Structures are given as structure tokens and as C-alpha cells.
Amino acid sequence: MSRQAPPPVAWHRWAGHVDALRSAVAARHNKHASARVSQHARLVLMDSIGCLLAGRRAPEVAALEAQLGALEPGDFPMPGGRSLGLRAACQLLAIAPTWYEACEGHAYAHGRPGIAAIAALLPLALQRDARVGDFVDALVTGYETGARAGGWLRVAPGLHVDGNWPALGAAAGVARLLGLSVEGTMQALAIAACQLPSSLYLPIRTGRTVRNLYLAHSATLGLDSALAAQAGIDAPPDALAWYAEHLCRAATQPPPAPTADLVLDAYLKPFAAVRHVHYGAVAAQRIREQLQGQTEGIHRIVLTIYEEATVYCSNPQPATLLAAQFSLSFGVAAMLRFGALDPASYEAPRFMDAELRRLEALVQVEIDPALTRANKRGARLTVVSRRGHCEELVAADDPGLLLDAAAAIVKFTDAAAPTAAAPDAQAFCAALLQARADVPMRRLWQLLCKQQGD
């Protein structure tokens, strides 16, 4: 009597996705990023550092930095602050950039693959005296891995991505900087996959800033996983597939081609709010111009937008900074009222401005079924006032959603004050964007730490 073949293992259906991830790593192994990819990766790095400098001004972040500096002093200098140890710096570099929600993101990944990778890489790069080219290549490898992981390993409802798959990108980036092989990198990803935590979406609903700690978990887990792989610690090779099968809502769509440069789709935010808010904010900015800033006569506001935005960003009448960053109605109202949606929008006197709050209460959010069915992003904003009827449409490729290099430098300069004077901030940006591949990363970082004599 012949034996029956054992039933197929359920998680083996994800083997193709794991192989695609390995192929993406292999496609970049021992290869330098193209000039176009390198330049955009540098923009992402520059913008993330600017968001870091802005976030450090928040009292909670400043207090945490002081605690970390006292507990773990080291040789990574924070501009205008203490020098931190490797892990302390990694944590702070992951926490501060998200504070005002002005940091990079990636639509396919449904998250921000760059922050955790940068946080894990930058202190290590300075410690190892890495060159700009090596750093950028490591960041690109980390970003490509993280973006693909985000598009595949979709988190379950009620969870937030920041404390989850970004660790995989951080692990891949650190593995590249350490010089690990392709299989060594995949081992680092498997080590991280065995430890991916769950992070709740609940703090956003309740406006609690614990959400801003999530990426620190990802950054340190990625760092630890790559170091563990380098040390010879191993993990089941099918850990990623097992995770996809049992612990998330993995996407079944074919993964992107291994040679596709997803980092080129990384967006830089013109406004300090989650990306879903930007579409209505751009429309509101244009309607404000039509109304010449006169909002007193407005008596009806309707925002029609794709369903996913309403799932994550309803939050009417937000009472805290974080809830407001994830509020469609607040973003529209703030832009109509002040023509800006920046860190100052979440602080007194703007945050509780009576006219802003009157406008926010008027905003009616409706779902656009056509955009939702087509899985596209965009918004229509209708504003009715004594001056008449105004309507603006904003598509996913609207120029108002994009920052070119010049605008990104202006954003960085504003974010860096008062830590760095405008000339110093601009000199750093120019040096970062133009530096040769063989320039030490430490030399660039010193431009932001001039007052410390480094």
C-alpha cells in the first residue's frame, strides 16, 4: 500500500514572494545605485534629517533625548545636543522625525520605509567611518526591501505599520552596510521576521503620542537582526512565509519586479500631516486663494475622498496633536484658515483658533466610490460661502503634492531652525546632495554640529 504524499504546507504559497525579496536584494548586492536613484535617496535622507531636527523641539522628545544622553552617552553627536551611544541614537533618530508627521512615505508600502532604515544606519555609518556612497547604497537596499515588505505584509485591522515591517528594511540596510552576503541578508530578515511585534492603531484614535515610539522598535530590531546574522545566529529560512500566512493580511498580488526602483516613488510631504490628509489640504489651499483668505462667509464644506482615507483619518474635532495629524477635517480647516499645515498648526494659538474650529465643524466627509473601486487616491473639495461656490479636484499625481529639491531645502531650513542657522542648514543640504561617493558621512554630519566643535 503506497503512502499518500503529505499535504502541502500552507505558508509555502508565499515562497514566490520570498524569492522576489531575495532577488531584489541580490539585484543590488555589490552594485552602486544609479545617479537618479542615489539623488532621490539623498533627498529622502535630507528630508528625514530635517524632520528629525523639527521633532527634537517638542518638549517630550527633548526630555527623552536628555534621558538617553544621561543613560547612554556615546560618540554620535546630536546637533546642538548631547552625544549619544549607538542604540540611543538609533531610537531618537526613529522617534523624532515622525513627531509632526511631515516625514517621507511610500504609497505602495502604505507606510514609511525610510525612517527606520536611516535611524539604524546613520549612527552605525559614523561609527564605521562609512562613505557617502556606501551609506546611500545601504539606504537604497533597505528602502527597496522595506517598501516591498510593506506592500506584501499588510497589517491586520486595528494595527499600525510602524512597529512592524519597517524592521525588515532596517535589517537589510544594515546588512548591506556590514557587507553581508545575499544569504546573510536573508538570514537577517528571517531573524527579524521571528520577532516582528504588533503595534496598535488605538493611540491615533485617542491622540496618544506613544505611536511615535513604534519606529524605534523597528529600527533597533533591524539593527539587532543584522548584527545577529553577522555573528552567525540563525533563523528558519521560511520565517517570512510563515509570518505572511499566519500573522498578517498578506497581499496576494504579484510583487514588483526585483529591479524596479521603488525608492523613486518615495514622496516628501509638503505638509505636516498624514498623506491621506494632503489631498484635501491642497484643494483647500487653492480655494483659500480664490477666497483671498476670507473664510468668515463659508457655511458649507464637503470633502469627497477615497474610502481608505476615511478609515484612517476621520477623527473629527481632534483635541491632540496626533489626532489632528490624522484628521481630514482638521487639515482642510487649517489650510482654509491659515493657508498652511505645518508644526505651528498644532500649537497655540492656531490649534484652538475659534474660526479654524468653526470651519472644522462644517467639514462633511463623503466617500468617492469611483476612486475607491479603482484603488486610486484623490479628493474633491466643495466650499460654499457668501462669495459663491468653489470646487477643486486633486488627483494622486497633482503637482501640489510634490516637493522638488529646491522646495525640500526650504522645508529643511525651516525645520532646522533654531538648531542650525539658515546658512549652515543650506550648506548641509548642498553638501549632502552634491557630495562625491568617497566623502565620509561624518564630515557631512559635522556641518550640522559646528557649534560643538566636532
Automatic annotation (TrEMBL):
Question: Which residue ranges does the record assign to the MmgE/PrpD C-terminal domain?
Answer: 271-421
Which residue ranges run through the membrane?
none
Instruction: Give all residue intervals belonging to the MmgE/PrpD N-terminal domain.
Output: 25-241
Q: Which Pfam families match?
A: MmgE_PrpD_C, MmgE_PrpD_N
- Highest taxon, organism lineage: Bacteria
Family membership, please give it: Belongs to the PrpD family.
Protein name according to UniProt: MmgE/PrpD family protein
